[in-house]
Design a protein that fits this description.
83% helix, single chain
Amino acid sequence: MTLRIGILGLLMVCVGCAATPVSPAAAALAQAEARYAESVDKGFAWSAAKQSLERAREALASGDEAAAEQQAERALRLADASLAQAEREASAWQERAPFNN
């Protein structure tokens, strides 16, 4: 499902390319939203990433491309970090379990 969301987001950006050029901020936002959705699916979404996405959307809507791109890139980094945490926790919990001694 996550892959579909990511591909759908990219397709929407690409379809938009045919009609009108997509700004770097809008492309960054689409990528960050897809990565955040993946972190939500894994149960490791961070509230800071969500807040950055909201700020990016607001900045884009108000026409502040630079702020939108900056916030979208921050959201992407945070979503990536949350996914890395999800990967580590997939096995780390076993090392902390009391029956593993």
